[in-house]
Amino acid sequence: xxxxxxxxxxxxxxxxxxxxxxxxxxxxxxxxxxxxxxxxxxxxxxxxxxxxxxxxxxxxxxxxxxxxxxxxxxxxxxxxxxxxxxxxxxxxxxxxxxxxxxxxxxxxxxxxxxxxxxxxxxxxxxxxxxxxxxxxxxxxxxxxxxxxxxxxxxxxxxxxxxxxxxxxxxxxxxxxxxxxxxxxxxxxxxxxxxxxxxxxxxxxxxxxxxxxxxxxxxxx
Amino acid sequence: xxxxxxxxxxxxxxxxxxxxxxxxxxxxxxxxxxxxxxxxxxxxxxxxxxxxxxxxxxxxxxxxxxxxxxxxxxxxxxxxxxxxxxxxxxxxxxxxxxxxxxxxxxxxxxxxxxxxxxxxxxxxxxxxxxxxxxxxxxxxxxxxxxxxxxxxxxxxxxxxxxxxxxxxxxxxxxxxxxxxxxxxxxxxxxxxxxxxxxxxxxxxxxxxxxxxxxxxxxxx
Lengths: 220, 220
Prior knowledge:
2 copies of one chain form a homodimer.
Chain A: E1 5-9, H1 14-24, E2 28-35, H2 41-55, E3 59-63, H3 67-70, H4 100-115, E4 119-121, H5 137-150, E5 156-158, H6 166-175, H7 198-210
Parallel strand pairs in A: 1-2, 1-4, 2-3, 4-5
Helix pairs in contact in A: 1-6, 6-7
């Protein structure tokens, strides 16, 4: 085991990018991303690749091309429109991809085990708890217990932002000089951030509350 | 929720095929198989498809084409040879695909949640416990606890053969008139079962101990 290594699950979004910059100060990193047919995938993954390139980090993309077709979610189904409005509202439930974190973390843990990397990181934060059950502390605890059985203690998941808000993450990113403009949040996956979907709302609000200048170009 | 439905994780092997015949008596079934670059995958999956066709069951194959390349195992790496000999021996550890069941069951649970199917079955049995940590009762318990958090109780995993031996499974299969010749075990994935790898040993021994005629053609 190489105790100074972490395999980062990185989407190309703000949270996982700031987390990579935070972990880079203490650990050697590998990146893994997932292409499961998400509508904003090409934008996200391009930015994840950009961050990998800047950091000089190995970056693998695991493709599960059929997964989107099997799962009903506004994030993967082109016929369901992405709801607009604030994250913490019932209509945003249509953006839940069921069991997404269990799937991504199980695959990441397998890759980490193969490379003898003891830690897998992901960037769930407190703002995700309301809608996404697989971003809650209870899920992370139970996932780690499951992993203790499945991999006999060789790999554990860490989620350093689990009890922090997105505003806290923006503050931390500003201190770490993260190039925020090189991260992608919008679920629509257009040329610019739409400014109307839940994750655009959340992104904008976090910069405002953090008192950090928001370099994002929003269509609206 | 449709309480009479089960999504069966089926490989095309003896255990999962007998389990499908057992569950068919009580439940309406869907099948899901995984193509993760396993060396014997094409044989296995062909037989899984044959069983689906005979039973008139929907059968989806989830492809994770890169997974094999990321994972070190004799089952996915063409440059590592499949060890010969009995299952319960140290050298068979090279056939462990790390975290395989967590990956397959996480994806199956997501698909089940999307279809409102409350149960996912898999065919781990007591003979798998020694080498494969993710076939042990503790793993199944902890996986279900994790799933309770991730999917809020909508899907659970069942493993009806968890405390039975492969010999018990052959006995049950004989009672259910399972066409054993239409199942595939061998890790080599040649034209016939090799008769020398761990799973061929185990298959042969189970028929002998069960006192059931073995219709398998072995090369040796």
